[in-house]
Design a protein that fits this description.
By secondary structure, the chain is α+β, with helices and mostly antiparallel strands. Helices cover 16% and strands 36% of the residues.
Length: 434
């Protein structure tokens, strides 16, 4: 031991500095996911698996072993793991997830109840339903009420009903039977256009109704004004679609605008499902290549005509949706400009209706969280992850006219269907997804 005080202090400072350097190095390696391996006597790289779910506190089973509960973070050695998230009373969620050294892999499971609580939103007989542009309101026609004046066109508000009834009658059926009309919401949801046609599908009369209050029975026929109404609503839809479209890569803008039908953006505008009208190949995923980690589900970048696909803007990934119906008789064309000479035909007006109502053109629609799709088929109503995995049946009952919509908060599905009623009697029924 040296007796020189300066040398002693220098030696102490050196060891302190060495300790800080080693400690910092170890802390950095630990933060990166490296852990001591006693067998090899070295630091082994690990990856972080971040598992969340709704509802929370669900069991996490990794490679058939109960490991933890959500929400949690796990350091795992690099490899591919089969992750199953389950909770009593809910359908399980399963996915194969690759864990890479020094990277975070996320798993966000939305679990749906095995048995859903149901409650009726309407009574007697409902026909002719139509959801507005953001699925916060549903227009429907009530029939067979004991009070004749109660029959007519209503607007059901899914949210914001704390101070009054959620069902607002906006017109009676005494003069016109609105169950025979085609109902089209305006882009701003302030009006509903009711179209009446003959057997040749020619428009015989049209009425523009306020969706906020009771309308007079002496409404003026707006058939002659239809070209102007179409022009105005096309302009509003173009102003809605163009900013969203501009967020996507150039090749997707061209594809969605000119070579696809049935284009529907997710509520958060970060995803879109569509059906190309030609066979083509998407460019390499440059967005995904620039990210450290993306969804592990294999992509489909070789597009086939009339096959539905979904594109994720954040990761640049593209997935096939093999369960989607082939294009129906009505195909939606994305409105990005006003027609030079708008035609007051039923076909042009149905294009306005189809801009947000995917039920007219396909068996798919968006769930409110933008992470799942609502799928209707011979099995009833199902939920499926946006990458076409985890198809989960919600109910085996069939919705009339394919009508099913989710509440904005995702807590319930609303179907026009028949449950424990007389044959051919349908009402709006709420299915609890909490």
């Amino acid at each position: 031991m040296t007796k020189n005080p300066k040398a002693k202090r220098l030696l102490v400072n050196f060891f302190i500095l060495l300790f800080l350097i080693i400690g910092t190095f170890v802390a950095i390696q630990f933060a990166k996911g490296y852990r001591p391996d006693l067998q090899s006597r070295s630091l082994s790289g690990t990856g972080l698996l971040n598992i969340t779910s709704y509802p929370k506190s669900a069991r996490v089973i990794i490679n058939d072993k109960l490991t933890t509960v959500t929400d949690d973070k796990l350091y795992l050695l690099p490899g591919t793991y089969t992750v199953k998230v389950e909770k009593d009373g809910f359908h399980p969620w399963t996915k194969s997830l690759p864990v890479k050294s020094e990277l975070v892999t996320s798993a966000d499971a939305r679990l749906f109840p095995i048995i859903t609580a149901i409650s009726p939103l309407t009574f007697y007989q409902v026909r002719n339903t139509a959801a507005n542009t953001d699925s916060t309101k549903i227009a429907y026609v009530l029939k067979n009420s004991p009070q004749e004046t109660n029959n007519g066109l209503y607007v059901y508000s899914i949210i914001g009903n704390l101070l009054g009834s959620s069902n607002l009658q906006i017109t009676e059926n005494s003069i016109r039977d609105y169950s025979l009309a085609t109902l089209i919401w305006s882009p701003d949801s302030s009006q509903i256009l009711a179209l009446f046609t003959d057997k040749r599908q020619q428009i015989t009369s049209a009425y523009l109704l306020s969706s906020k209050n009771m309308n007079s029975n002496t409404l003026s026929d707006v058939t002659l004004r239809l070209p102007l109404i179409i022009n105005q609503w096309q302009d509003q839809y173009a102003k809605i679609n163009l900013p969203t479209l501009s967020l996507f890569p150039r090749y997707m803008i061209d594809l969605l605008s000119h070579q696809s039908i049935n284009v529907y953006f997710s509520p958060d505008k970060e995803k879109v499902f569509y059906t190309p009208t030609v066979d083509l190949n998407l460019p390499e995923n440059e967005i995904g290549q620039a990210l450290p980690n993306i969804n592990s589900t294999p992509e489909s970048r070789n597009l086939q005509k009339n096959q539905a696909y979904l594109f994720d803007l954040k990761e640049g990934t593209n997935y096939a949706l093999p369960f989607a119906d082939k294009p129906l008789a009505l195909s939606k064309t994305l409105i990005t400009a006003v027609s030079a000479t708008p035609s007051a035909s039923l076909a042009s007006l149905l294009q306005l209706k189809a801009q947000t109502d995917s039920r007219l053109t396909t068996n798919l629609s968006w769930y409110s969280n933008s992470k799942q799709l609502i799928l209707t088929n011979s099995d009833g109503v199902n939920m499926v992850d946006y990458d076409a995995t985890n198809i989960t049946n919600i109910t085996y009952v069939q919705p009339l006219e394919n009508f099913v919509t989710a509440s904005p908060d995702g807590s319930k599905l609303i179907l026009l269907t028949n449950i424990n009623q007389k044959p051919d009697t349908y009402n709006l029924i709420s299915f609890d997804l909490k």
